[in-house]
Every structure is written in C-alpha cells, then in structure tokens.
Amino acid sequence: MNILLIQRKQEFAKELKIAWKEQGNIVDIAGNYESALQFFYAGNYDIVLLDTWIKGGDAFLLAEKIRERSRKIGLIFLSEDTGFFWKKRAFEVGADAYLLPNSVEEVSLQVFALGRRVKAEAEYRKHRYVYADMEVDLLQRKVFREGKDLNFTEKEFLLLSLLLKNQGLALHRDMIRKEVWGADFQGASNIVESYIKQIRKKLQDKEYHWIKTIRGYGYGIDERKGE
Questions:
Q1: Contact at 8 Å (CB) between 144 and 134?
Q2: Fold observed for domain 2-126
Q3: Which long-range contacts link 131-139 to residues 24+ away (Cβ below 8 Å)?
Q4: Cβ–Cβ contacts within 10 Å for residue 195, how many?
Q5: How far apart, in whole angstroms, are the C-alpha atoms of residue 50 and residue 180?
Q6: Which of 56, 74, 153, 217 is 20 to 30 A from residue 121's alpha carbon, by CA?
Q7: Residue 206 has pLDDT above 80, yes or no
C-alpha cells in the first residue's frame, strides 16, 4: 500500500514508517500543512493518516481537500486528542476512523484492516461504473438501478458506458455513433438521438436529468449529480 503520514509526533511516525516499510509498503511522512499538500497531490495514496493539529494549517480543512479529490482513499485521524469534539469533527470531514497513537501494533491492525477494505472496493469498482443509484456492470454487461436489472440492449449498454467513462465531458454525436456502431455504420442519421431517448426512458432520467443534451453538439453525463 501507499501510505501518507501527516503527524506532529515525528518519532512515532518514523516508528510506523519503519514497521510498515518492512512489510513492503511505501510510506511518506509530512510534518506540516504545505508538505502534506505537496505529497498528497503528487502521490497516489491508498491511506492517509492525519493528526488533528498540523503546523502551518488546519487539519480538518486538509481532510476536506483530500475528500474533495477522492472519496476512495482510506482517511484516518491519528491523534492524542480524545475529546468528543475532535472525533465528531473528524467524522464530519470524512474520516473512516479515529485512532489513538497507543502502539505501532495497535495502529497497524486498524490501518491494514482499512487497507484491505480499500483494496477490495477498488477491485470491485474496476469492473463497474457507479453513478448515483445506478450501477453498470462491465463484466455482466448489465445496468442496474437500486439492484434492479433494467434490461439494456447491447447498444444501449455500450452508449451509456461510453458516457459514464467520460463523465463531465461533452461527446459529439458523430464520435458516439462511431464508438458504438462502428465507423462503417450506414443506418439512420438520428440513431444516437433515438437510443438516448430509450436510455433515458429506462433510467427514468426525466426526473434526474443525468444525461445532458449539448445543443448542436452531442451528449454528456453530469458528474456532479452522480455523487
């Protein structure tokens, strides 16, 4: 795993780093707000451990920045502050756990348990697109909403998958037609519009407006509505 330690207690952080590196993990240590941001934006971390106090900045604001960038990273507060206020604040900004730095062994148990969960979720997501209450299973080639199979045809599945793969981007209808039906397609010129209509009907998208029409251009998925 790739782990980022953002700690005021540098000695304990170094003990954790030594123990975890011996198990084959990559561990970086940041001692202040600026270096924490630099490490985080430059790295690809599975787990971030964060103190409630950081030199040069607000730890909870940093946690919010981490969560804005990724909801998939395991985020743990590791702090000597035992008051309810600190724990409540930590979970409000997206922490998965709040631990006391009692011992390397105890912290390691919790960190690696969360790490296994993060890895399992990443493996699960590798073959799926999850958007709001919709799930596209790339292996079964099926689309579900709230666990119900929507019985998409192959072309409907390919079109929706293409839009989800490119969330936040506007895709030209000609590009969609080429990707879904092939460069040699000689059928109806409005084939994309027709299939978008069918997909919207099956998704009941009239209520949610997930698929956006870009007038005179094509279509896209509003990534903000998928959170």
A1: yes
A2: Rossmann fold (3.40.50)
A3: 131/164, 131/167, 131/210, 131/221, 131/226, 132/208, 132/210, 132/225, 132/226, 132/227, 134/203, 134/210, 136/160, 136/161, 136/164
A4: 20
A5: 45
A6: 153
A7: no
As a whole-number percent, the residues of the chain with pLDDT over 70 amount to 96
- State how far the Cα of 51 lies from the Cα of 63, in Å rounded to an integer: 10
Q: Give 165: exposed, middle or buried? Use CB within 10 Å, 0-12, 13-18, 19+.
A: middle
Bridge partners, 134 (sequence order)? 131, 145
User: What's the predicted TM-score (pTM) here?
Assistant: 0.60
Looking at the predicted structure, is the pLDDT value of residue 76 above 80? yes
> Which amino acid is present at 27?
V
Contact (Cβ atoms closer than 8 angstroms) between residue 47 and residue 4: yes
Question: At residue 225, does pLDDT exceed 80?
Answer: no
- In the prediction, which pLDDT does 88 show? 95
Q: What is the pLDDT of residues 13-69, one digit of tens each?
A: 999 999 999 999 999 999 999 999 999 999 889 999 999 999 999 999 999 999 988
The domain ranges of the chain are 2-126, 128-226
* Single-letter amino acid, residue 197: K
Q: What are the pLDDT digits (tens) for 120-133?
A: 777 766 788 888 88
Decide yes or no: CATH 1.10.10.10 for domain 128-226: yes
- Please report which helix (H) or strand (E) contains residue 208, including its range: helix 205-208
Contact 97, 110 (CB under 8 A): yes
